[in-house]
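Study this fold:
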Amino acid sequence: MGSVLLPVSLLLAATCLVSGSPPTPSGPFWVHINPEVKAVRPGGSVWLNCSHSCPLPESSSLRTQLQQGGMLRGPGWISYQLLDVRAWSSNVRCVVTCAGETREATATITAYKRPDSVIMEAPVLVGHKYTLRCYVTHVFPVGFLVVTFKRGSRVIYFESLERFTGPNLANVTLTYVVRAGPNDLWQPLTCHARLNLDGLVVHSSSAPVMLTVQALSPVAKALASTSIAALVGILLAVGVAYVRKCLEMQSQ
């Protein structure tokens, strides 16, 4: 087999030298890129392999706005390294020119991270209103995040954070004050974080907390204690006066 391939290779090389142009493929050549879709952690790196069927490509390149690192090559393929990926979604094009014809293959690189945790703080009841506070930790991209408060299965508030465009992992705290109704006590309250990434939806939720009569602010507790003490004092005074009057009536 080696004795057959060697003359063919020499013939191809001789043809290039005589004609001054590279050999053309027998049909339309192809270009592939692998992987075509890749998700990485924000700030991470990835290798893409660009392969083709051109015997002697005139040129090959990777076109992207992402930072490029190392490069490896072999017959019919080149691998490119992309560094510090921080954009949510980036298109990458592998472009190869063969015998005057240019073809390309496209890959999509995404960077996102599900929240480490979603924590619903125990609500504080002040008067007829209570404060909801939710913590969403180490999430990216924040601009695609929607945070929702629910009482039972009912949505009572939600907020989209599309105004945030930072390129780094972030912690988010969302606060909302709501009026307490007569049926709110002992209702489960939850916080939900949703990343809506152009069709890819990532959900995370907190553990439920309850709004109870114990969920009083320190000021409200102090006022309640003072009121109870005053009421007890009044009852004791009334009781003492009643006993004294009974004793006076018996002595008569």
